[in-house]
Write a structure and sequence with these properties.
With 653 residues, this protein is mainly β. The chain contains three helices and 50 strands. The protein has eight domains: 103 residues, Pantoate--beta-alanine Ligase, Chain: A,domain 2 (2-Layer Sandwich), CATH 3.30.1300; 60 residues, no CATH class; 60 residues, no CATH class; 51 residues, no CATH class; 60 residues, no CATH class; 60 residues, no CATH class; 54 residues, no CATH class; 94 residues, no CATH class.
Length: 653
């Protein structure tokens, strides 16, 4: 049977269309709002781009912006100078998404402030102010996080001068400064219905290895209580414990931009003790290298390539144990042969010390300070080698100083001698010439005895007499006050002069070379009358005084005063063998007993008085002087008495 199909009624259709219209209008409204929101978002982004361009320009132009006191559209009615000033900081000039119009721009007169604006879908104006560095929408202010909205470094300790909100109010108003590796959040709330901004300040924490960042002993089997990281996050989370002889690496990652650090735990392998190699020995002095000898049989040489020792020296190194094994100290020695120094020589006799000469060129002197040798002797020492080297024997000798000295041939030979015979030319030194010729009669031969080793040379002479007979000189037969000393011989050799009786002098002139001798005689000086000599006077205790004969003297004999009687003084005769020549008178005060008046009545009258003092020589035996005596009443008459002075000295010959 055929079914019947029922259609929609008109009311139903109207209702359906109404519902559809309502739904369509709702969708259209919502779509328009979404479209407007998208357009407004772009407008805000464009204003922000233009703001960035203006700020960049200000930074490079000492805080000024392109001046435009009348509002204009960027890329449109604005002068070319504004567009070209901002274009370097923009890839393209932004334009309004709806009207394709440009955004407006205006400044104050000096370019220190500016405003960039856009018209939103709602008809409100979205504006950026350069002086306030803020955005606004016709009194509605969207919140903007401040400079504290950032990540702080590990060394930062506070927010410092950073602000929490550039626009809006912070909530909470004073956020706590974050600890290392943590963060703090706050909200910048918009004004007058403006949008809020969520802000966060974080503080970095550098990664820091824990106590597991070390080398473990071979016997260790786990990290034990050691920490993997002190700061930061372990990566990987659970590092495996290293096997013997290996290591495990992980990182302690910093937080909030902190530095990551790499950490390593190593584990020592089985210990190996150091052991010296074949080079640990003494090498002969002629060796120049280690050859094939090894430094270490076990372990590692430190230094890795020890220098080969010089002669007499040593070089040390360590064979370092491995994996906490013990170290071994090793030493290579090299022998040094002893070698004599500059003192190993013969010194001149006049040298008295080694001076700057060294005892050993190599090795050690034994004894350390050898004594300097005496003349004609030597001193011996050894230069002992080192490290098994050979010892050297050294000797310093010193020459004997020999001064030349003439031998017995240094003399005068008689004329009859014809050779040196057994006489030697030199007692010390060397004769130069070696065999001097024997001198002829009356001649001589000279040679030198040359010293040795710095000694002096001595000149020597052998002479030979010429046969000469003795002949007295002009002093023979002469008269002298003392023994003559000159003109004794005209030929020959004079002997010493002797004094004979009677003051005669005698000597001989001996012949030379076998010649005859001559006897010579001279007389001494004679007194007046040529009987006695001056020496005879001296020998007789007399005194030589002048006489009246030129060139000759007389002998003065003196006698003590012996007063006489009233008749005056006295005198004496010359000694035996002597004859009086002239008297020398020496008077003294005449005593009253020598010459006086005999009677009391007589008056003493001084006539020719005897003077006191010395008088000249005269032939008279006495000097006379007189005293007169008056007699009679009133002494009218007188008697003259002769008085004699005392003679105390007499001249004799």
């Amino acid at each position: 049977m055929k079914s019947l199909k029922r259609g929609f009624t008109l009311p139903e259709i109207i209702i359906a269309l109404s519902i559809l219209a309502i739904l369509t209008s709702i969708v259209v409204v919502q779509m328009n709002e979404a479209n407007n929101t998208a357009k407004d978002s772009k407008r805000r982004m464009d204003i922000n781009l233009l703001k960035s361009a203006v700020v960049s320009y200000k930074t490079e132009n000492y805080g000024a912006v392109p001046v435009q006191t009348t509002r204009c559209s960027i890329g449109g009615t604005c002068p070319t100078e504004v567009t070209t000033s901002l274009s370097p900081y923009l890839s393209t000039l932004p334009a309004d998404p709806d009207s394709e119009a440009y955004y407006t721009y205006e400044t104050n007169a000096d370019g220190t402030d500016c405003a960039i604006s856009a018209i939103l879908s709602s008809g409100k104006i979205y504006r950026y102010s350069c002086s306030a560095d803020s955005f606004s929408t016709n009194g509605i202010t969207d919140a903007v996080c401040g400079t504290a909205n950032k990540a702080y470094s590990v060394s930062d300790i506070s927010f410092g001068a950073d602000n929490f909100c550039n626009q809006g109010n912070a909530n909470p108003s004073n956020p706590i400064y974050p600890f290392h590796g943590e963060s703090v959040s706050w909200v910048c709330e918009g004004l007058n219905g403006g949008a809020n901004a969520n802000c966060t300040a974080s503080r970095a924490l550098d990664g820091l290895c824990g106590t597991a960042n070390k080398t473990y002993a071979a016997a260790d089997s786990s990290y034990g209580s050691d920490s993997i990281c002190v700061n930061g996050t372990v990566n990987p989370i659970n590092p495996s414990f290293p096997a013997q002889g290996s290591s495990t690496t992980w990182s302690c990652d910093g937080v909030n931009g902190g530095i990551n650090v790499s950490c390593t735990a190593s584990r020592i392998a089985v210990p190996v003790d150091g052991l010296c190699g074949a080079a640990n020995k003494t090498y002969v002095s002629s060796a120049s290298s280690y050859g094939s000898d090894s430094f270490c049989n076990q372990g590692t040489a430190d230094p890795t390539s020890p220098a080969f020792p010089t002669q007499g020296q040593s070089v040390g190194w360590d064979c370092k144990g491995v994996n906490e094994g013990t170290n071994a100290s090793c030493m290579a020695y090299r022998g040094l042969d002893g070698s004599c120094g500059a003192a190993n020589k013969t010194y001149a006799a006049l040298v008295s010390s080694y001076g700057s000469d060294n005892f050993c060129n190599q090795g050690t002197a034994n004894p350390a300070s050898p004594s300097f040798p005496d003349q004609g002797n030597s001193t011996t020492w050894s230069c002992d080698g080192a490290n098994g080297g050979i010892n050297a024997s050294c000797t310093a000798s010193r020459l004997l100083l020999i001064n030349g000295s003439c031998g017995t041939a240094n003399k005068t030979y008689d004329a009859s001698v014809s050779s040196y015979g057994s006489d030697s030319f030199c007692n010390q030194g060397t004769a130069n010439p070696t065999n001097p010729a024997f001198p002829a009669q009356g001649g001589s031969t000279t040679w030198s005895c040359d010293g040795a080793n710095g000694g002096t040379n001595t000149s020597c002479t052998a002479s030979r007499l010429l046969l000469t007979n003795g002949l007295c000189g002009t002093s023979n037969g002469g008269v002298f006050a003392s023994a003559p000393t000159t003109n004794l011989c005209n030929a020959g050799s004079a002997t010493s002069v002797t004094t004979a009786a009677g003051q005669h002098y005698s000597w001989s002139c001996n012949g030379l070379g076998g010649g005859t001798n001559a006897s010579c005689v001279a007389s001494g000086n004679l007194l007046v009358n040529d009987v006695h000599t001056e020496a005879d006077c001296t020998n007789a205790a007399g005194t030589l005084v002048a006489s009246d004969t030129a060139g000759k003297k007389q002998c003065k004999f003196t006698q003590s005063v012996n007063p006489g009687g009233s008749s005056g003084g006295w005198n004496f005769s010359c000694p035996g063998g002597w004859t009086a020549y002239k008297s020398y008178t020496q008077t003294v005060s005449t005593p009253s007993s020598w010459c006086k008046c005999d009677w009391p009545a007589e008056c003493l009258y001084l006539g020719s008085a005897c003077t006191t003092g010395s008088h000249g020589w005269s032939n008279s035996g006495q000097e006379t002087c007189g005293y007169g005596c008056y007699f009679g009443p009133g002494c009218s008459g007188y008697v003259y008495y002769t008085c004699y002075s005392n003679i105390s000295a007499r001249g004799c010959y």
